[in-house]
Design brief:
- With 134 residues, this protein is mainly alpha-helical.
- 69% of the residues lie in helices and 4% in strands.
- Strands 1-2 form a two-stranded antiparallel ribbon.
- Helix 2 packs antiparallel against helix 3.
Amino acid sequence: MSVLKTVALSLLLTAPTLAQAKPPLREVKEIDNELYYIAIANEISKQCDVIAGRRMKAIGVMWGLRSKANSLGYSDSEIRAYVESDAEKARMRAKGEAYLAQKGVTYERPETFCALGRAEIKRNSAIGVYLRAN
């Protein structure tokens, strides 16, 4: 077989693999954003005694996100690596802290978490749906 035919054949065999390359899960916005909303809601519920997290709702959504990631071709081990990654946790934390600071929330004033939580619940926002007032 000529060199040209060998190269063409190898390109044909690898083309489907290249076309199926998946972006990192952090770039799949429908998954990454939802995990971000859940993380913010969780932090609000931890810092504010009068607001609780809707944990069963969050767990249900996370199972749905896992199914969605699986349907996009991500294995359970790839999903686990993304969720447990120290780098991803740090990225998500920095993103969350920036959001909280933008909203005037500080750890020195826990009542600011409560104010934000109540506002998110009232707006029925992407974060607020994971919270309930006690």
